[in-house]
TrEMBL record:
Lineage of source species: Eukaryota, Fungi, Dikarya, Basidiomycota, Agaricomycotina
Protein name per UniProt: Putative transmembrane protein
Transmembrane segments: 6-22, 34-53
Alphabetical UniProt keywords: Membrane, Transmembrane, Transmembrane helix
Keyword Transmembrane applies: yes
Length: 67
């Protein structure tokens, strides 16, 4: 749970920082947006994978308890 919260807060922080950078300096927008988008994609994929693992573990525990 706490790891997923950490990932989501990291994603939110990077999104906010990227928005601020793009507002301050539009000239560096391409490199900033590409690097930030790749960073956000990696962290979102990690958070999604982690939550899917948690769900599958809880389903496995439920299935084991019902047998």
């Amino acid at each position: 749970e706490s790891l997923l919260l950490l990932e989501l807060s990291t994603v939110a922080l990077v999104a906010a920082m990227t928005t601020l950078i793009l507002r301050q300096r539009p000239s560096s927008s391409l490199l900033t947006s590409v690097s930030a988008l790749s960073f956000l994609f990696i962290h979102c994929a990690y958070a999604l994978t982690y939550s899917m693992i948690q769900v599958s573990e809880s389903f496995t525990a439920l299935a084991g308890a019902s047998i």
